[in-house]
Design goal:
This protein is an alpha/beta fold. The chain has helices at about 30-55, 70-80, 100, 105-110, 130-135, 140-145, 145-160, 175-185, 195-200, 205-220, 235-250, 265-270; strands at about 60-65, 90, 120-125, 165-170, 225-230. It is built from 12 helices and 5 strands. The termini are far apart. The protein binds adenosine monophosphate and magnesium ion (MG). Pfam families: PPK2.
Length: about 270
């Protein structure tokens, strides 16, 4: 699967206004066949995570950003189904608490980054501080403008210290969001997800797209790349993201740590005990 076309880089500048949220071009075999592939990717991920945890050498940070109803929760559920919860954590970033607000914006973020052997998934992230903060002018422009550079430096530091960083913007269309909101309003099992503020937020769609475009243009780096994922179809979104994560973990060339010396010598006394 050639996921490069979703990778934002200097040689592949992604323009959100032209990006197709319905795209399924990397899975020509369609939804049904892809379910099998997703299952196999999940199995691989479970194994890779086991080695990551055992080896306790690499740190993995996965950042998920999306518009409301963009599928962050569903992605986490679908992809990490079955992994060992000891080594995987989710950190969700909401409206900052008074304590968080009394600190710099990276303070709460830094506390949640992965340790050796861990995978941490950020459900929203430091990028809210150049997204919602920018769109709603929660801080003046001269404050948030500096943050792109600061975030790049922060992520560079994490990468230098052994963190693999992957960033995903789950891209749904405005039409798809409307469909999902209606579903939330009508389906009793989804009504709990509905937040009246989401309707107000939807009015700022274009401003958000502009803010996301800047995020992608300014903060997609080889050490912390942004992938823009077509996310109108959940199965396709899950397939592409799993593929990228599995590929990245494989490239770490991890292995179980060496067992203690002469491990077999312990077998006899144990069997006779
Ligand atoms: P949800 O993810 O639906 O539970 O919503 C969390 C809300 O917190 C979203 O509306 C975010 O925009 C908001 N949020 C997250 N981080 C920040 C931040 N740094 N400043 C202001 N609002 C934020
Ligand atoms: Mg919400």
């Amino acid at each position: 699967m050639n996921v490069k076309e979703y990778l934002a880089s200097s040689s592949n500048q992604i323009v959100l206004s032209h990006f197709d949220a319905d795209d399924q071009s990397l899975a020509p075999e369609g939804k049904k066949e892809s379910k099998k592939e997703l299952k196999s990717l999940r199995k691989q991920l479970v194994k890779l995570q086991q080695v990551l945890y055992a080896e306790s050498k690499h740190k993995v940070l996965i950042i998920l950003q999306a518009m409301d109803s963009g599928g962050k929760d569903g992605t986490i559920r679908a992809i990490f189904d079955g992994v060992n919860p000891q080594g995987v954590k989710v950190a969700s970033f909401k409206v900052p608490t008074p304590l968080e607000n009394a600190h710099d914006y990276l303070w709460r973020i830094h506390q949640k980054v992965p340790a050796n052997g861990e995978i941490v998934i950020f459900n929203r992230s430091q990028y809210e501080d150049v997204l919602v903060v920018r769109v709603h002018e929660l801080d003046p422009e001269k404050v948030w403008k500096k943050r792109y550079e600061e975030i790049n430096k922060f992520e560079r530091m994490l990468a230098n210290e052994g963190t693999t960083i992957l960033k995903f913007f789950l891209f749904i269309s405005k039409e798809e969001q409307k469909k999902r909101f209606i579903e939330r309003l009508e389906n009793p099992e989804k009504q709990w997800k509905f937040n009246p503020g989401d309707i107000e937020e939807r009015k700022y769609w274009d401003a958000y797209m502009e803010a996301y475009q800047d995020v992608i243009d300014k903060t997609s780096k080889p050490y912390a790349p942004w992938y823009v994922i077509p996310a109108n179809h959940n199965w396709y979104r899950d397939l592409v993201i799993s593929h990228i994560i599995v590929k990245q973990l494989k490239s770490l060339k991890m292995d179980y740590p060496e067992p203690v010396e002469n491990i077999h010598q312990y077998l006899d006394p144990l069997q006779n005990s």
